[in-house]
């Protein structure tokens, strides 16, 4: 059996191929084969809030004020973060922020610069 990608909308693993399209039977989402970014070296494909693909070493900008859990600190909108590292999990960006230190961020709150 061939390895088919999971549905980008609902994450279902039951997708099937029909011609030049992939189709999800659970949410009825259809997408072309060209629309799927291929993971490089089995690393997860991570995109920012605007759909730009992120890679290790990129510079990003925070697009929303983020409270730091367990602290009274806040990461302000427009904060630039250099040299990110992508990891698996809910918080998929590992980085160091000046004045705060090591941090994990969600890609949905950043944009690639």
Automatic annotation (TrEMBL):
Superkingdom of origin organism: Bacteria
Domain annotation Protein YjdM N-terminal: ranges: 4-32
Gene3D superfamilies: 2.20.25.10, SH3 Domains
Listed InterPro entries: YjdM (IPR004624), YjdM_C (IPR013988), YjdM_N (IPR013987)
Protein name, UniProt field: Phosphonoacetate hydrolase
Family recorded in the similarity comment: Belongs to the YjdM family.
Keywords, comma-separated and alphabetical: Hydrolase
Molecular-function annotations in GO: hydrolase activity
PANTHER family, per database record: PROTEIN YJDM (PTHR30305:SF3), PROTEIN YJDM-RELATED (PTHR30305)
A Pfam family recorded for this sequence: YjdM
Domain Protein YjdM C-terminal: 46-112
């Amino acid at each position: 059996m061939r390895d088919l990608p999971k549905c980008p909308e609902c994450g279902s693993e039951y997708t099937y191929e029909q011609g030049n399209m992939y189709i999800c039977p659970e949410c009825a989402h259809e997408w072309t084969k060209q629309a799927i970014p291929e993971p490089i070296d089995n690393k997860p494909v991570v995109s920012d809030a605007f759909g730009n693909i992120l890679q290790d070493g990129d510079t990003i900008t925070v697009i929303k004020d983020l409270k730091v859990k367990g602290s009274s600190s806040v990461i302000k909108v427009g904060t630039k973060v250099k040299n990110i590292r992508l990891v698996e999990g809910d918080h998929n960006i590992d980085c160091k922020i000046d004045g705060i230190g090591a941090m994990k961020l969600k890609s949905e709150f950043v944009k690639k610069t």
